[in-house]
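Need residues for this backbone.
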């Protein structure tokens, strides 16, 4: 299969083969043998991921760059532009090349992103990319699972899964051994590595564990040979000969001894353990003091030669060298942060925290601030605690500038958690401390949040005043991020006057943020552009933006913004009539510890969906929580998402008094803030009670047309915006033909309550030939399966277990069991396998 893939790659289009299997199954042996067979006359590039405390960013690419030199190596000298690095790598694949990347289960997220980027474009090359990974543990590594899912959709991707040895193969391997073949099979499950190690022990007795087998082989070495093996285990999966020699200061025969025994193996430019499990076993068996000794020895050698700070940090941690840990983990964190890898950066800074008391007070404050900053998009509580520690240290040391800065940063965390009383208190204290000290980075960082708080309370003039102050100081200090913060405020304040110009302003601000690599600022702007684009139902534009934003936010570990975007994507899918996607996106946000400002749109999207499907009780539960959070936050700009949803639910439940109460509470606010979508929709729902609310030229046009009774213009407007449910609602106010057209739109959605209303209108008009239609949950579905049963059937095609289906669909395993049973009955089959086979006929 590998030879066939290579032929296709060289003759037609590049190919990617995922060589997978459990640890020790023979992945590396397979690709090494293949590489030897294909080496003659072919270009070969080889890289590997290492098992470090925190993976080295783009580790395998650094290995490959050492072989290629040129543009790729140059880009990796200062890898601050991931796209440029990926482009340089792809350029290396334009001629026939065999590329091997080993052990991506240890890859950092930048490497996974590179593989995703390359996998989508590999068909434009003439390269065969072989990637090895362990299948055990993939479920515990969501980023890797996501990558595998993305790659599987590419036509150029193949999967080669290596299986354990059969019972017959085990018997053949054990034929010359005194060990019992059946016992070996039971103990190893046919894993070649375990078998080889157990057979190599040669003791005549079955070892209790693989650890005993590995250490029995190591015991055959001389003292110097054991030192070589111990040091090699500490160095890592790839062992540079010069490094090993300097660490152990051993003669060549000591290394040769390990090679001869088969514990180490030699490559063109490095050594490695024959199996990674051997290295891990040896490492785990070392007493702590000896493991620390070897880490320190490696660290001492690397200090004068290594350019990879993550490697230095890894060995500093292993050696428990406090000074080195503080130096190198912080440097590694800064490198990761510069690449926008905030989760990796946070992990590195976290590694330094246990030794923070050994720093000077100012350095302690700086470390806590880095922990706070890099957790701001990953873990808000950890971020808050870090800034609180900075503030406490600064207050005790009488450092007002640092105190004000920490308070300002902490206020941002409380803002994101919608804890506005504490946010405002911290901002007030920070401003009191910082303003008398004159212009400073700490002061300029305070004004944007003050401006945002004023804006969300409907005080646009005050918001602009604070933004102007911040912008002026940011220009004086040449602070790009703070200038962009001010630009964002100006754009948001422009919205009520000219929504189109406000959006254009935010788009220009996003372009500048991307250009200047202001990752967190860009994340915030993506979320704001998506929110405000949906205000005017720009579904096509928002759809494009969501795709772009998701890739960027995942790449840069901006989890807070990603939750925001996902929640608003749920609203987008609701508008587009993609209701299964809407539910999945909303549930994925609600399953996390999302901040209230992300939780509200997810609750509203799910609540509206449930109401439109006819599950009024479940809808009321979701909307009640959204209402509580909305009133707690008091955000005049965004409150409309709840009030409009609650009004629709009240309309579907035939509760006009509730609509009137909601409109009395919110409509004037929406009009005062000139919110085109929320104001128009709230006016529309009030109009359904018999009232005649005034409309404005800046309101979303189809709502205005519906209020005016111009159903044809309204339906055309909703169709142009890609909103089928809203289009059907407009058609429902039209002629008999229009109402029947509305039913054709509503029934595939499962919009039972509105479908029932339209049918009732037709009956009341004396129409007899009314399309009856199946139940909402079964309409247009084969074999009468409900929409949810179709979702379950699709996952049966992927051989998912009930537990896996439950996790992916956010339902209980018991519910899955009921769905599977119903599917078997409706398909008239007896087993899951037969159901899956029938499903493949339905979904070829």
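Answer:
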């Amino acid at each position: 299969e590998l030879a066939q893939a290579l032929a296709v790659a060289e003759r037609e289009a590049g190919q990617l083969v995922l060589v997978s299997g459990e640890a020790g199954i023979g992945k590396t042996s397979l690709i090494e043998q293949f590489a030897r067979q294909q080496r003659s006359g072919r270009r070969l590039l080889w890289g590997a991921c290492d098992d470090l405390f925190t993976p080295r960013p783009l580790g395998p690419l650094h290995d490959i760059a050492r072989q290629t030199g040129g543009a790729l190596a140059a880009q990796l000298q200062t890898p601050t532009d991931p796209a440029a690095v990926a482009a340089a790598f792809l350029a290396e694949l334009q001629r026939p090349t065999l590329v091997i990347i080993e052990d991506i289960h240890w890859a950092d997220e930048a490497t996974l992103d590179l593989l995703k980027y390359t996998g989508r474009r590999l068909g434009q090359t003439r390269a065969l990319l072989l990637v090895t990974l362990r299948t055990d543990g993939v479920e515990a590594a969501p980023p890797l699972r996501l990558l595998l899912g993305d790659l599987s959709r590419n036509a150029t991707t193949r999967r080669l899964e290596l299986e354990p040895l059969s019972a017959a193969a085990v018997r053949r391997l054990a034929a010359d051994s005194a060990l019992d073949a059946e016992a070996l099979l039971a103990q190893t499950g046919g894993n070649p590595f375990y078998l080889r190690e157990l057979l190599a022990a040669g003791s005549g007795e079955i070892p209790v564990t693989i650890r005993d087998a590995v250490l029995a082989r190591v015991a055959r070495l001389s003292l110097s040979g054991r030192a070589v093996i111990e040091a090699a285990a500490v160095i890592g999966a790839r062992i540079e000969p010069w490094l090993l020699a300097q660490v152990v200061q051993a003669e060549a025969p000591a290394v040769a001894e390990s090679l001869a025994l088969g514990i180490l193996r030699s490559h063109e430019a490095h050594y490695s353990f024959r199996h990674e499990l051997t290295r891990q076993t040896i490492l785990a068996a070392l007493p702590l003091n000896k493991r620390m000794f070897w880490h320190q020895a490696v660290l001492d050698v690397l200090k004068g030669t290594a350019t990879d700070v993550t490697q230095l940090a890894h060995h500093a941690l292993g050696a428990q060298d406090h000074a080195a840990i503080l130096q190198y983990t912080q440097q590694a964190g800064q490198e990761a942060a510069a690449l926008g890898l905030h989760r990796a950066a946070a992990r590195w800074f976290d590694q330094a925290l246990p030794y923070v008391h050994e720093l000077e007070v100012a350095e302690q404050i700086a470390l806590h601030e880095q922990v706070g900053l890099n957790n701001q998009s990953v873990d808000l509580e950890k971020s808050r605690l870090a800034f609180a520690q900075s503030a406490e240290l600064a207050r005790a040391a009488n450092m007002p500038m640092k105190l004000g800065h920490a308070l300002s940063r902490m206020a941002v965390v409380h803002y994101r958690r919608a804890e506005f009383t504490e946010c405002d208190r911290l901002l007030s204290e920070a401003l009191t401390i910082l303003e008398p000290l004159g212009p400073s980075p700490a002061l300029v960082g305070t004004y944007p949040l003050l401006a945002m708080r004023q804006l969300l309370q409907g005080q646009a003039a005050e918001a602009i005043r604070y933004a102007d102050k911040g912008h002026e100081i940011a220009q004086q200090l040449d602070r790009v991020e703070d200038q962009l913060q001010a630009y964002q405020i100006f754009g948001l304040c422009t919205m009520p006057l000219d929504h189109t110009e406000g959006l254009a302003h935010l788009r220009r601000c996003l372009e500048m943020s991307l250009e200047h690599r202001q990752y967190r600022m860009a994340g915030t702007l993506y979320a704001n552009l998506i929110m405000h684009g949906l205000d005017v139902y720009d579904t096509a534009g928002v759809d494009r933006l969501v795709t772009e934003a998701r890739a960027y936010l995942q790449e840069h570990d901006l989890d807070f913004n990603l939750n925001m975007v996902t929640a608003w994507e749920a609203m987008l899918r609701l508008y587009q009539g993609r209701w299964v996607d809407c539910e999945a996106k909303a549930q994925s946000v609600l399953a996390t510890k999302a901040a209230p400002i992300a939780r509200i749109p997810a609750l509203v999207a799910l609540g509206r969906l449930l109401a439109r499907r006819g599950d009024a009780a479940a809808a009321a539960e979701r909307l009640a929580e959204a209402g509580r959070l909305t009133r707690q936050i008091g955000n005049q700009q965004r409150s409309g998402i709840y009030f409009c949803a609650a009004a629709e639910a009240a309309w579907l439940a035939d509760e006009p008094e509730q609509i009137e109460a909601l409109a009395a509470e919110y409509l004037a606010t929406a009009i005062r803030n000139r919110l085109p979508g929320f104001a128009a929709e709230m006016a529309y729902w009030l109009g359904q009670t018999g009232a005649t609310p005034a409309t404005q030229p800046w309101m979303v046009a189809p709502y205005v047309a519906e209020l005016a009774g111009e159903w044809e213009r309204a339906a055309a407007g909703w169709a142009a915006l890609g909103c089928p449910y809203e289009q059907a609602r407009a058609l429902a106010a039209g002629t008999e033909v229009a109402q029947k057209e509305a039913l054709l739109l509503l029934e595939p959605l499962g919009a039972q309550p509105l479908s029932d209303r339209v049918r009732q209108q037709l009956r009341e008009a004396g129409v007899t030939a009314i399309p009856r239609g199946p139940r909402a949950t079964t309409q247009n579905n084969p074999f009468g399966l409900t929409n949810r049963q179709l979702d379950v059937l699709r996952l049966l095609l992927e051989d998912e277990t009930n537990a896996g289906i439950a996790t992916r669909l956010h339902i209980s395993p018991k519910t899955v069991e009921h769905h599977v049973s119903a599917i078997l009955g409706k398909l008239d089959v007896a087993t899951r396998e037969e159901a899956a086979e029938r499903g493949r006929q339905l979904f070829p």
